[in-house]
Amino acid sequence: MKNHLKLFGIAAGLACAASANAQQPQVSTQWVRCLGSPSVPMTADATQALPMQITASLACGSEVAVLSDAEGYVANVRTAEGLTGYVARMYLTSIAAPRAPKPPASAPVENNVARWTPATPGSDQFYSEDSVVESLTVDGVTVQVSLHDTGWKLRADIAVANDGASQVSVTPSHFTLLAQAPHAHQLAYQDPKLMASSVSHGVLWSSNGAKSPSAGNVAVNTAFTSSQTPNYLVPAQSAELNAAKHDVDLSAVRQIHNTALRQGEVATGAKSAGAVWFERDKKAEQLVLRVPVGQTIFEFPLSFNQDK
To answer: How buried is residue 174: exposed, middle or buried, by Cβ count under 10 Å (0-12/13-18/19+)?
Structure first.
């Protein structure tokens, strides 16, 4: 008899627990949509009678737990901070708000110089138009470079993207290219206006692309990418540089004019891209390209395989 009573008690307990669970409200997750307002009011009462008893202002895109929803004008919600109240249902959606992209990491700066270093914060490398591109970001300003030996001059394709707090200045004539091996010397910047007097179509675009040097025993010629770093050289390479490269009817003077990187200010949210030319040293194997942008010098190590 006692065993029968025990079994009955257990069954009754399970039935009560199931009944209690069935009576508990189903909590769902929703997100706040502001519909043009800066925030959404949450009130203490379900009627939201005037004057409204506002207990919190919910930020656009914030997540809330819906405690009860009778398909009426309001829903009872709980915020991530644990506050409860009522929100008009038109301000709730089951579609999560898109997350803002994470800003790219910033490279360290020492004595106003930021150095591209493989697989470190702020440094990135990828392939674009069959060229290795080195990318370096400091405080929201990204500089990307690829270097080419045309057989006549060295051409650097350079992009500057400014997502920083203020505008930055770009002066291509202040860029420097240093050959470090086999002999250390500076390769002179080539003024596009002076180049135009002695250039032909072919020598502008025939190209041997530079690579990134190795870091110790780790070769970094293989592309590594960061999803946080867009390719800002695409507009220059795909639109202007490639158009000039394949347009044999376009004079060399106009090609240089159309593709040269412009001097000037790059406003916040703006980008600038183009080509910069330097004196060629056919024996140069290891080089350093220095690109002053604003108050920072962006420094890129590059190398050519001269055994080809």
So the answer is: middle
Nearest to 279 by CA among 138, 158, 185: 185
The CA distance from 3 to 37, in Å, is 65
| Alpha carbon 225 to its chain's center | 11
Sketch out the chain's domains with CATH numbers: 26-93 (2.30.30.40), 113-303 (no CATH)
Of the candidates 43, 268, 64, 41, the residue with the CA atom closest to the CA atom of residue 161:
268
Task: Mark 83-93 as b/e (b = at least 16 C-beta within 10 Å).
Answer: eebbbbbebbe
The better pLDDT of the pair 294, 49 is held by 294
Q: How far apart are CA 238 and CA 250, in angstroms?
A: 17
pLDDT, tens digit, 9 for 90 and up, residues 37-75:
888 999 999 988 888 899 999 998 899 999 988 778 899
Mean of the per-residue pLDDT values for the chain? 80
Q: pTM above the 0.85 mark? A: no
CA atoms within 13 A on the CB side of 49: 2
Q: Would you state the structure tokens that stand for residue 276, as one six-digit string?
A: 């910069």
Least confident of 126-130, 167-171, 299-303: 126-130
pLDDT in tens, 133-160: 999 999 999 999 999 988 888 999 999 9
Q: What is the DSSP string of 193-235?
A: HHHTTS--HHHHH--EE-BPPPBTTB---S-B--TT---TTHI
Burial class for 275, CB neighbours closer than 10 Å (0-12, 13-18, 19+): buried
